[in-house]
């Protein structure tokens, strides 16, 4: 997920570059058309509106240069986007005022600004810019109507004064409504595009992870078999030797150490083999809320976490999935264990399960622990990678492989010192017939 944020940030920078270039080209075209208009009208000495228009064009060109120079030096690109968009609304208002105010044909520039604000800042930004454009246009028209601002109209055209109050009100209302309508529609498209891009990035990361794990899994399977066979021979030989030789406390102590470490290596090799080749599970219809509640109860009985970790769970009822119950329990225990170990002293783990679109159920585990940096997030699925003083570093690798068999993936969001959110989705299924049977009062 953090790589997603990096990608989206670089995408924002690219969009800002295109915006700066577009603004520069617009200013150049406006400058050319103004010079052409002046030459056709044979205006050797520019009039007041033309002078103001030249100032506006110069301001646009100057700001485009400034924006481009500071783009690579500023960290908060969102604030730079807001600054540019707000400045653009004022320039558009000034252009509308110069070219006739209420009668100007350039009021279409407001929706243009709103559209690219939705591309840059999505719904929140586009609604803000729409409100700002509406406010500026309303003030401009009102000031014209009551005579505070004088429009630059020729041939004695009365401008807005030639219209009734109702006509002015309706046109203003239509313009304001158009601004918000454009903001709403364009933000929907932008949000959909952003979500699609996020999903695409997450899928690309998942595919790369699967390819990497598949390659490592082949190596791991062969290596695990090669380790387990000599370990079994070694353990059996030590046990026979322990039974046949004369008892000696020192020798017996050494043999017990050998047996203990042999069992530990055998367990590690078994986990490694489980990571490499997950055994096929027995698919059954599971009531997800019941299965998760039982797993939480099992986790809470661990003496390591009693009194230190509190698990809050919000589980939607009536959701069934087709899955091996042991696989589900193994996934949940691993994720709960990781969340608990990320909390140094006392803390809370929030477990949520709820239905989502496309007939899926999402399970989220959120802790308020130490969090993870981007480098750690990129490595947590690698076998034997761990930040703990103990552990094999295979837990999340096994979780990844289990979820992969159910066409699911584990998504991670984390911030250092703020906590971590792990979530995955499971395909929902119809409940078994027995779950739908209810006894009527006379049959009870």
Q: Strand-and-helix sequence, N→C?
A: HHHHHHEHEEHEEHHEEH
Number of domains: 3
Poorly predicted parts: 438-444
Q: What is the straight-line distance between the termini?
A: 52 Å
Note the overall shape. Answer: elongated
- Give the biggest sheet: 7 strands, mixed
Provide a count of the helices: 11
- Extended strand count: 7
Classify the beta-strand content into a percent band.
Answer: 5-15%
Output the structural class.
alpha+beta
Radius of gyration: 34 Å
Helix content: 55-70%
Average pLDDT rating:
80
Question: Care to describe what's here?
Answer:
This protein is an alpha+beta fold. It has three domains: 2-205; 212-276; 284-431, Heat Shock Protein 90 (2-Layer Sandwich). It is 63% helix and 11% strand. It has eleven helices and seven strands. Strands 1, 2, 3, 4, 5, 6 and 7 form a seven-stranded mixed sheet that branches. A hairpin with a 3-residue loop joins strand 4 and strand 5. The longest helix has 80 residues, at 165-244. It is elongated and about 115 Å long. Residues 438-444 have low confidence and may be disordered.
């Amino acid at each position: 997920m953090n790589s997603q944020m990096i990608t989206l940030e670089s995408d924002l920078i690219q969009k800002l570059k295109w915006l700066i270039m577009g603004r520069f080209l617009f200013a150049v075209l406006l400058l050319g058309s103004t010079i052409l208009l002046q030459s056709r009208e044979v205006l050797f000495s520019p009039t007041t509106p033309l002078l103001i228009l030249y100032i506006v064009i110069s301001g646009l060109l100057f700001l485009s240069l400034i924006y481009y120079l500071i783009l690579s030096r500023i960290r908060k690109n969102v604030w730079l986007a807001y600054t540019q968009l707000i400045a653009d609304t004022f320039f558009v208002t000034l252009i509308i005022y110069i070219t006739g105010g209420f009668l100007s044909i350039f009021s279409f520039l407001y929706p243009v600004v709103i559209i690219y604000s939705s591309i840059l800042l999505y719904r929140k930004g586009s609604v803000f810019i729409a409100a700002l454009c509406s406010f500026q246009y309303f003030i401009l028209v009102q000031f014209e109507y009551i005579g505070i601002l004088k429009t630059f109209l020729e041939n004695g055209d009365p401008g807005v004064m030639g219209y009734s109050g109702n006509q002015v009100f309706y046109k203003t209302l239509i313009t304001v409504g158009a601004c918000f309508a454009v903001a709403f529609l364009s933000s929907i498209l932008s949000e959909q595009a952003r979500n699609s891009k996020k999903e695409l990035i997450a899928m690309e990361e998942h595919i790369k992870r699967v390819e990497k794990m598949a390659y490592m899994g082949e190596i791991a399977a062969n290596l695990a078999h090669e380790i387990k066979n000599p370990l079994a021979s070694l353990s059996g030989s030590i046990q026979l030797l322990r039974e046949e030789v004369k008892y000696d406390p020192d020798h017996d102590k050494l043999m017990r150490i050998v047996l203990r470490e042999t069992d530990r290596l055998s367990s590690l090799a078994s986990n490694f083999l489980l990571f490499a080749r997950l055994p096929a599970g027995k698919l059954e219809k599971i009531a997800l809320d019941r299965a998760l509640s039982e797993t939480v109860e099992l986790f809470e009985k661990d003496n390591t976490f009693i009194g230190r970790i509190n698990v809050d769970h919000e589980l939607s009822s009536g959701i069934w999935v087709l899955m091996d119950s042991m696989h589900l329990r193994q996934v949940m225990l691993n994720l709960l264990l990781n969340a608990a170990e990320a909390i140094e002293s006392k803390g809370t783990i929030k477990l949520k399960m709820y239905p989502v679109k496309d007939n899926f159920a999402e399970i989220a585990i959120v802790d308020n622990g130490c969090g993870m940096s981007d480098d750690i997030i990129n490595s947590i699925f690698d076998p034997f990678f761990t930040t703990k003083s103990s552990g094999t570093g295979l837990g999340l690798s096994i979780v990844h492989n289990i979820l992969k068999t159910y066409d699911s993936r584990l998504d991670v969001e984390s911030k250092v010192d703020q906590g971590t959110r792990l979530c995955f989705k499971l395909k929902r299924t119809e409940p078994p017939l027995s779950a739908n049977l209810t006894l009527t009062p006379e049959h009870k």
